[in-house]
Amino acid sequence: MRNVGIIGAGQIGSAMAKVLAESGRWSVIASRRKVHELEELRRLGVRVTSDNREVAANSDIVIIAVKPYKAVDVLKEISDLVEGKIVISVAAAVPIKKLKAAAPGAKIVRAMPNIAVMVKASFTAYSKGPDLDSKDEAVVVQLLREMGEAHEVDEELMDAVTALSGSGPAYIATLIEAMAYAGLKVGLPRDFAYLSSAYTVFGTAKLYLESGRHPAEIKEMVLTPAGTTIEGIFYLEESGIRTAVMKAVEAATKRAKEIAKKLNEGD
Ligand SMILES: NC(=O)c1ccc[n+]([C@@H]2O[C@H](COP(=O)([O-])OP(=O)(O)OC[C@H]3O[C@@H](n4cnc5c(N)ncnc54)[C@H](OP(=O)(O)O)[C@@H]3O)[C@@H](O)[C@H]2O)c1
Questions:
Q1: Is 180 in the pocket of ligand 1 (CB under 6 A)?
Q2: Residue 32 CB–ligand 1 contact under 6 Å
Q3: Is the pTM of the predicted complex or chain greater than 0.85?
Q4: Within a domain: residue 183?
Q5: 5 - beta bridge partners?
Q6: What is the largest CA-CA distance in the chain?
Q7: Considering its fold, how many domains does the chain have in total?
Q8: Residue 81 in contact with ligand 1 by CB distance below 6 A
């Protein structure tokens, strides 16, 4: 069993700790300052502490999951204890160069998961720092795949990834809510409306992923001439749903770049 440390066991860090501990393949130690908030993790067999250095000293791989503006300070605090170790930062907007400067001896990976880590269905993109060899990368992929899918991406695309798959659960939750509202409008019982909307999103994504059919093809399979679906599609197209989504992701990417610029000013 490998030892994994998670510094900043908040929303995403706790979800990662839970998934790794429950797999039985990783020994997990996690920290945050309000350590009493980690009772649930402790019950799952995660060692919990408020001491980040204790986490680093007892781990082969360290995950940094504090807010972006704290990532560098936390890394500096443990720098001497992570020499030769893999450090995965999930902090948005903090570049590998800056992480490397904070812990020069560490093998840095920058990753962007999403909140679906909670159900082992994250889409996680990662970029490798300069010192990672293929064995290290295999370990990183093995660890990230405990939480869902993991794919490498050029670091320069990380702001776009943050805006698409990082923020994505919020967009899809909005879609599920909109579909459920629609269900209520046409008289479906509330629970049924939410459940059928969520399963429809889930099933369509699964169909795309497993059949390899293009989304346009999936749509064609449902569209009958003069049928009900084309009636619905007509209004979706009229409302500009595609451009709305494109504008949303483009705006979120722009915002991610602005935040990164502000955070890294003066470097
Ligand atoms: N939420 C997402 O969907 C998501 C997705 C992808 C990436 N991320 C990235 O994940 C990181 C965390 O986001 P989050 O949403 O999980 O935030 P969060 O819930 O606020 O978690 C951050 C945790 O860090 C702890 N912390 C603060 N200072 C610390 C310190 N000095 N040492 C140790 N722990 C400390 C905080 O707990 P205490 O106050 O008790 O210390 C808090 O629980 C961010 O960098 C974000 O960009 C988040």
A1: no
A2: yes
A3: yes
A4: yes
A5: 29, 62
A6: 68
A7: 2
A8: no
| Containing structural domain, residue 139 | 2-154
Residue 5 Cβ < 6 Å to ligand 1: no
Handedness of CA 242, 196, 174, 94 (dihedral sign): negative
Amino acid at 65: A
Average pLDDT of the residues of the chain: 97
Torsion of CA 215, 220, 226, 227, to 10 degrees: -70
Same domain, yes or no, for 145 and 191?
A: no
Which residue, by CA, sits nearest to atom 15 of ligand 1?
Answer: 11
Chain segment 217-246, per-residue pLDDT in tens: 999 999 999 999 999 999 999 999 999 999
Give residue 205 CA to ligand 1 midpoint distance, Å. 29
Q: What is the pLDDT of residue 266?
A: 74
Per-residue model confidence as pLDDT tens digits over 136-184: 999 999 999 999 999 999 999 999 999 999 999 999 999 999 999 999 9
Task: Tell whether ligand 1 has an atom less than 6 A from the beta carbon of residue 11.
Answer: yes
